[in-house]
Every structure is written in structure tokens, then in C-alpha cells.
Amino acid sequence: MSSSDAGSSPEALAERFAAVRRFTASLAEPLETEDYVVQSMPDASPVKWHLAHTTWFFETFVLERFVPGYRRHREAYATLFNSYYEAVGPRHPRPERGLLTRPTVREVYDYRRVVDDAVAAALLRGSGREKDVVPALLATVELGLHHEQQHQELILTDILHALSRNPLGPAYARRPPIATNAASPVPSRGWLPHEGGVFEVGHAGSGFAFDNEGPRHRVYLDPFSISGARVSAGEFADFVEDGGYRRPELWLSDGFATVRAEAWSAPLYWERRDGAWWSFSHYGWTPLERDAPVSHVSYYEADAFARWAGARLPSEFEWEIVARERPFDGQFVDDAVLVPVVRTRDDEGLFGATWTWTRSPYTEYPGFAPVAGALGEYNGKFMVNQIVLRGGSCLSPRSHLRATYRNFFPPAARWQMSGIRLARAR
After folding, report:
1. pTM of the model
2. Half-sphere exposure of 422 (CA within 13 A, CB side)
3. How far is the CA of 74 from the CAs of 70, 227, 290, in angstroms?
4. Which of 75, 126, 129, 325 is 20 to 30 Å from 336 by CA-CA measure?
5. What is the enclosing helix (H) or strand (E) of 192?
6. Could you tell me if 36 and 48 are in contact, meaning their C-beta atoms sit under 8 angstroms apart?
């Protein structure tokens, strides 16, 4: 399923386990109890469910597997907090997670404490276990931590959608001071040229990776250029004002059908007020920051904008080759600013701020095979009708990302922190 850092130890992983679990809990601190339970659409989950599901993951795949005689905290949780793992039993319907007023928030935090203590004890006993057990234990805990980091981002995206549906427009948090060089003009888009050629792509070597990041294999790329900066909200507003959502020649057929069926006329969380655009974020309603990267657009919208701009979206391998040749730098959730910041240079870096939609369908690499058992359901069974995104966002943990990381969502998804970076042939 994954590879672990060769230098990790049970003690070091126990410290990281505690840190990741604390950070998840910290994301819920700004919430009121009522906020924990709401589910605003079937694709989103209540914060309480995220807190319980990530705990269920460790209980099911670590404690039940590696701790002899372990008994589940509560038998009913095995069904309530299973997401999509067919091999481990029945699941509560996803669209009905918001109906789970019980267990209470307090009981879910009790569940987390019990499982946290048990996992920590299992790790600290690891050095005394059979040698063939310890690597599997460490690899599974590490997978669980990266799984939890995915849910950290989902907690933030899902609660944002829920708050946006409230006519009061409540803010998740107070907006911190954001350092931007507003006195300097935002530069015109620069392009990063690449000669193309034959390259090896995918994960190789030490360090964690999900199974969908390999096997490493060769690809050929024609010469191309990728934009040094993401598409800004102002640029996207120009697309809107130019009738972008009313021009079928710019859209894929399924995309324009979605525009009409969903009555889209602007990105998610945009609203027209007195002739000006406003946007909703974790800090509530604010005037649109035109120079900041556009966010919360679907693949369909990204593709239509690229066509309007006389460009295209990058392939996932074009993005990966350029990203691994440049510094790993960007805006992440670690920076504690939950909106993509205003860009002030041509080369923003390839990581963070907003996920980059690519034009690549999410499918398996040559030679891919999911691991045996329930954990094989983690990625492989979703390799249809999805599009690859790369690079992470301002809601992603820095330690969770790498150049080979492949995120994926259906092409109409908009509630994630997804944005646009353009490419073109040379």
C-alpha cells in the first residue's frame, strides 16, 4: 500500500501520531457543538463524522490487526463510521451521516482518546514485537496518518460548504493579517518552458506514497510551457463578464449540460452585490480579491476558461516533471491562512494555494495492482470518471504532499480548494 521512511521508529511515529491527531482536533476548536453535526450535501460529511471515521480507521486497521485480544470500543461504530470499505462490513448511507445526532460529540472525543491511547501503546511496544510484525504495523499507522491528513482538508472544505448555506454567513474563524505586497502590481503571467522528452514519473525510493503513485514508469512529453502563476480571480471574472458561462463553444458537452442543469454563472461561493463580486470563505463574506488565485472551480470550468484564454490545462505528467525540478514551496494549512493569497510574482511555485486541475483522467499506471485485502479499496476502485489534481492547497498539510501525489475528484466537483494553472504547446 505504501512505503515508509527507512529512518522511522516506533517512538518517532508515536510522536507524529500524537501531533497529527492533535491538529485534527484543533481544526474543530472554532466550531460550536451544532456545527459538528450538519451535512450540507451528500458529497460532504459532518465534522463529527470525520473525527470518528479517522478514529475508526486506526481501530479497524491497526488495533484489530496488530493488538491481540483488542475489543472494539463500541460495536455499532464499525457500521456508523465505515466509509466505503466493502471488505470490512456494512456502512451507514453516506447521504445520511448528518442524521447521526448520536453518538454525541463528547462520545466521539471519548472514542478518539481511547483509540489514541491504544495506538500509542501499540507503537511503543513495537520494538519488542516480532520483526516481521513491526514494519507492517508502522506502515499501516503511517498510512492512517496520511489518511487523517486528507480528512483534515475535508473537515475544512466540508464545514465551509455548510457555513455557506447559512443565510447568516457565519465565519469559521477571524481572518488573520495576510502579508501581501499590495503596493506592487501583479505581474503578467510568465511561462515556464520545458523541452519535453522521455521521463520516468511516479514514486520511487524511500518515503511514504499511496499505491496510486506507482509503479514508476516512462512517459514521453512533447515540448510545452506551463504558467508560472495560477489564474487569478480577476482573470476568471473577465471570463464571466465575457459571457463565458453562456458560450457552449467553450465547454465540453457534459460541462455545458452541467452548467445548465445546475444554473452555474460563476464559481462556487461567488455572489454579485451592487455590481461587484463578493466571495465566501472561512472568514465570511468579503469583496472578491481579484489578484488572488481563483478557487472552487470545477474541471469543467477550468477547461472552459483555458479554451477561452487560448491555452489548455496541463497533463498530470507535465505538472509533475516541472514540479520536481523546482523548489517545494507554497502556501499550506501550516501557514494558518485559509484563503489563497494574492500572487505578487510570475513564478508562484507549483505547490499549495489551490489544487491544480490537470487534463488527465484518473486511471492506473502500467503495472498497478492494489494490495490484497480491504486496504486495496483505498484508491484503485475509484479509477473511473475522475480527473487528477496536483499540488495541494492552502488547506493541505505540507508534510502530506510531494511531486508524485495524485488527488482526484469528479469533473463537476467545486467544493474543494481547486484552481487553474494553464499550459500550452511550444
Report:
1. 0.95
2. 25
3. 12, 51, 50
4. 325
5. strand 191-194
6. yes
